[in-house]
Amino acid sequence: MADQPLKAHFAETVTLPDGRNVRVMAYPDGSIRFRVDGLPYVLTEAYLTGDATKDRAILKISPGKQGSNAAYNYVEELEKRNGQ
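Structure tokens predicted for Allantoicase (84 residues):
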């Protein structure tokens, strides 16, 4: 039988200025999960150090499509959609 998923012991939702919501959940095993509303996203930066003196991780996601290299300019794409 598969292990049951851990239940988050902390969850907080942040509303961004454009109305999207980001939910951060922390779990008893030390893992962290992020849920972002809106467009599909691609991982564009991951800084995961093994150096104990630099105890931080940085993750960046950008709007993109499946298979995207996330190189297009999102603002330009929105302008095209809006006919500007």
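The two ends are 55 Å apart (CA to CA).
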